[in-house]
Amino acid sequence: MEPLNTGVIGFDEMLKGGIPKEHIVAVLGSPGTGKSTFALQFIYAGLLKGENCVYLSLEESEDTIVKTASIFGWDLKPYITNKKLVLIRLSTMNIKAAAAWVENDLPRLFKSFNVKRLVIDPITLYEMLYESETLRREHLFNFAEKIREHGITVIMTSETNNINPYNSKYGVIEYIADGVVLLRQVRHNDLQSVATVIEVSKMRRIEHSRDIKPYSITKNGIVVHSEAEVFS
Ligand SMILES: Nc1ncnc2c1ncn2[C@@H]1O[C@H](COP(=O)(O)OP(=O)(O)O)[C@@H](O)[C@H]1O
Ligand SMILES: [Mg+2]
């Protein structure tokens, strides 16, 4: 299966090349762990390879995303102009309209735009639209089916659950996802500092690393220190 590089140095090696094509991958982590950065880096890596990309934000405005990317040295503007990148901010003020957009307009875009990479950051706000776990599962499952018809590789971000920090907020996306990547903050024993670590807890159809590796958010984006051991 053809892997898609994420552009995250050290991480692609953990997956033996990258995310398998057409996988839906959940990136989980508490606020500030770098989920949005990771997602943006994945999109930029696709743009560099000439792939059409869609970044759907349920949190930040288009302008903010372009600005954040430029700080990491990723200039999105030419790709927006050349129609290689569609950047959409969905307002969650009108939740019904937002849900309808995701379920009707987004699949239409898949057809007309030949999308190769899609980011939904964060999927949590979409999940929130549904009151019950049953409805949430049902809608997410149908949505994943639609994505799979179009050969798109997807990153969905989610905050972690307060009670179980290894699970996503609603504990549903891990079931529809082909892969789960966990970003975590760990406090050192001296309680003087916090380290960030990454692990791949699920990645269907490939033999991935099971290691927990430290990573940093640098001026060039996320870098996984694949040679380093965390608990040494
Ligand atoms: N240019 C930068 N250099 C180093 N670290 C940065 C930079 N920009 C952001 N960060 C770090 O990334 C964090 C935010 O990352 P973000 O991807 O928005 O996290 P999340 O989406 O998980 O909330 C900040 O809290 C900061 O620690
Ligand atoms: Mg974020």
From TrEMBL:
<dbReference type="InterPro" id="IPR010624">
    <property type="entry name" value="KaiC_dom"/>
</dbReference>
<feature type="domain" description="KaiC">
    <location>
        <begin position="2"/>
        <end position="232"/>
    </location>
</feature>
<dbReference type="InterPro" id="IPR027417">
    <property type="entry name" value="P-loop_NTPase"/>
</dbReference>
<dbReference type="InterPro" id="IPR003593">
    <property type="entry name" value="AAA+_ATPase"/>
</dbReference>
<keyword id="KW-0067">ATP-binding</keyword>
<dbReference type="Pfam" id="PF06745">
    <property type="entry name" value="ATPase"/>
</dbReference>
<keyword id="KW-0547">Nucleotide-binding</keyword>
<dbReference type="GO" id="GO:0005524">
    <property type="term" value="F:ATP binding"/>
</dbReference>
<dbReference type="InterPro" id="IPR022420">
    <property type="entry name" value="Circ_KaiC_arc"/>
</dbReference>
<dbReference type="InterPro" id="IPR014774">
    <property type="entry name" value="KaiC-like_dom"/>
</dbReference>
<protein>
    <submittedName>
        <fullName>Resolvase/recombinase</fullName>
    </submittedName>
</protein>
